[in-house]
Amino acid sequence: MEQVQPLRLRFGDFRIDEAEAQLRRDGETVEVPPRAFQVLCELARRPGQLVAKDALLDAVWGHRHINESALKNVVNQLRQALGDDARESRYIQTAPRRGYRFIATVAEDTAAPIVVQRQPATSAPTSLVGRDTALARLQASLDAARGMQRQLVFVLGEAGAGKSALIDRFAANCGARLAFGQCIEHYGSGEPYMPVLEALNALCRAEGGEAVARTMREVAPSWLLQLPWLLSEEDRRRLPQEVGGAAQDRMLREFGELIDRVTRDGPVILVLEDLHWSDHATVQLLGYLAHRRGPAALMVLGAFRPTELVLEDHPLAALRQQLRTRRLSLEVDLESLSEAEIGAYLTVRFGDAPPESFVHSLHAHTAGLPLFVVNVVDELVDAGTLRRDAGGWHVPVAGTLTVPSNVLGLIDAQIARLPAEYRRVLGAASLCGVEFLHVPLAEVVDMPVDALQELLDDATRRVGWLRATGARPLADGRIASRYAFGHTMYRQVLQGGVAPAHKLQWHRKWAAALGSAYGAAAADMAAELALHYERGQLAQAAAEQLAIVSARALERGAAHEALAAAQRALVLGDGRLATALELELRVLEAVALTRVHVVADPRVAAAFSRAMALRAEEQPAWRRALQGAWWVHFSRGELDEARALADQMKALAADGDAGLLLAALIASGFVQMLRGDVAQARTEFEAAQDLYAREGLRLAPSQFVQDPGVEVASGLGLVCWLAGEPRRARELVQQAASRAASNGHALSETTALSTQAIVHALAREFDAVYEITERLYAVIRKHGLPTGRSDFAWLHGRALVARGQVEEGLREMREAAHSAEELGMRFGLCGYHHHHVQACLEAGQVIEARVSADEGIALARRLGGHVVLPGLLTQSAELLAAAGEEALANDAILAAIETARGNGSTFFELLALAAAQQLRTGAADPGRLHELLALYQGDPSPRIVEIRGLASGGP
């Protein structure tokens, strides 16, 4: 793979380090949203050159439903981060309606890159007591991982049990590659795979990370696409097309393969903390890793609070039970400290063993909860009632401990001693998260920024559970100090003390303040902003953010999260959202449902119908809904409805929408072909081919589910075979397969290979059918696509029958048809019956063949006609003649000839005429038979050779 060095450039006061995804100004990090950073890199990579809008959309978003307004918003974000003015540009110049140009003078940056390391937990005690057994169990699991036995270990414990302290101690001495990921409460299910992506990024940044990135490119491109600063120039162009809307199954498979490869060089410990806040996609990944077979030097170390799983009905609870039952995971339960362990802690802290009576009293009072033990001891030391000096131990009298009897009460008491203004400020801060910035907090509490900082700095001196953690530049150039609560329980108590009216008001202010502080970068905080807006009872604003969350989840193949976000937004809106926003959410809901269910599912149809009902034809989202609805009806065999939608797309495309027109022509071509109108289908496909030749390269990939060039060549190739142009047909289907393979786009490849298999099956070239359908199965396994739901499955079975594996082949054909019927995917079932009749006759199962032929004819007539109807009628005539029913056979063969001729289907007319000659019916027409055979002159397929021999033998 050609690898392009990540950008490291200087321009003005700025420095870009693409490998670290950092933009810095005068040594200070400038916060830039990931998409905006990608756009900056794409522009800076071509200084002085015009970069077209479509090129930027393709490079940064790839196969996504994104329009130009999204690009405009991101460029505005970037200009805010750079302090650039669109009217007097210093860095980014706009070429109206065309694109953008990076006009700054750039130079290579030779300064050493900045590497961010994980900071140890500052709240962890300096010495860890009472956890020797737990540490030993973790070490044993790591030893097993070194022996290529994959390990999944959960560290359980309620808040304050010391989970992070244990993990940090273990990590400090493990001697293995570590990758940390943190689940965040505010984001929850809104950010699929977030802790895993954080861990992957850490692996790629660590020593030897270049090899990890290369391996990701080879076996896990869907994951690499989420870390754009690791991409080469070629990857930026090709990877979005290859991935093309990753399915969740594919992402799981890719990650499993990546781990297998990476751990060949030594053990890897994947640490995921606070899994009680994890998203559904991450839980699925854990389950996949636990069930995956084969050796791997992997240790997954996850921490969570078991009570939270039960209270929140978290999906990890069900997975945990399943893994425990199958003994696929190990649990390290951090129970309360014993009296001996508390005594050991006090001995380490004070340098001498404490009185046993005090240890007993302390254990009874705290129940051995480590956080509570430490806080109670701190309280007693501060009060002067517990100390160790030259005179020995001074301890509270037995039974006189006056600190609260639980940790929340203790924390509440500590907070109560703070001045009222401090409590008000920290209560407002607690609504933001474990960490917060003082500048937006000043807006929330209506305080001068400098006065607030003085208050917070004083608070960090008064209490040990609030600390300063650094600084961050804001969109307007100001520097904000960062603060963090030492433990989430302090936040919990502070939140509980805020009055409901203040909570509502402060959540609204937090949303506004964060939007102001981060500027355009606030778009990357969509889930957090949605939470603030929702809790501030601002439904429209919350829904806007949830639409962003849903779209991002779809990009990561996390359909459940995408669906949940879209549906949550619609519930919040309760029918009162702006039409454009509701439409966008309805389309996101429908697209997410297509990833959870097959496109023919009634729930998918209902979702697209709800979107279509909004009647906003001018909106790009409505046009996407129109295309989605077409797919639903086509897959269900509802050809009248599908044709009407294709015509509607054509009408809308009259405003100059070339992408929609191309989609409409392709859609209409497939409908007409399936309906049996070969001549009209050819007209549509050839018009689509001409349009694609003129406009194809200028159309955004996000407008199509798969490569339109592959679709056009596939459809036209099949039509040419039916119309009596075998040479051109073979050239087109081969061209489609080659194009799809070179693009690496899975859905396009399945379409191309399926069409190739159909052509070879009609020609009875079953060795080729077998080879192609085997390749199809390989593509599906590689990309995690659903199996058994398309015509290739029964074509594979048909090939098996032809190769002598009769029972296995017939069983595969029946199972594939049953699956399609159950799923409502009726568009290909007539073709199944046509091939199934042949297979049954070869197997000597005449009765089943006759039943299948009758069912196929009935289905074709229910659908309003079908391209294989004349073929089914011909088969029925042959079966009737064999049963001695000559009159009925003659009627059937006449109907087959008439139908095929009316459809313009030369191939099926040829089959019918050959059968008429062989059966010696009145429909035989040797002259017409020879005329049609001339069209297939030189074609070597067994079917044509057989008919040629029959024709030369005469009636």
What does this structure look like?
Helices cover 61% and strands 8% of the residues. With 955 residues, the chain is an alpha+beta fold. Among the domains are: 8-108, Arc Repressor Mutant, subunit A (Orthogonal Bundle), CATH 1.10.10; 132-333, Rossmann fold; 339-403; 410-535, Arc Repressor Mutant, subunit A (Orthogonal Bundle); 783-953, Alpha Horseshoe (Serine Threonine Protein Phosphatase 5, Tetratricopeptide repeat), CATH 1.25.40. The strands form five sheets. It has a five-stranded antiparallel β-sheet, covered by helices on one side. It has a five-stranded parallel β-sheet with strand order 10-11-12-9-13, sandwiched between helices. A hairpin with a 2-residue loop joins β14 (387-389) and β15. The relative contact order is 0.06.
Please provide a brief summary of the model.
The chain is an alpha+beta fold and 955 residues long. Among the domains are: 8-108, Arc Repressor Mutant, subunit A (Orthogonal Bundle), CATH 1.10.10; 132-333, Rossmann fold (3-Layer(aba) Sandwich); 339-403; 410-535, Arc Repressor Mutant, subunit A (Orthogonal Bundle), CATH 1.10.10; 783-953, Serine Threonine Protein Phosphatase 5, Tetratricopeptide repeat, CATH 1.25.40.10.
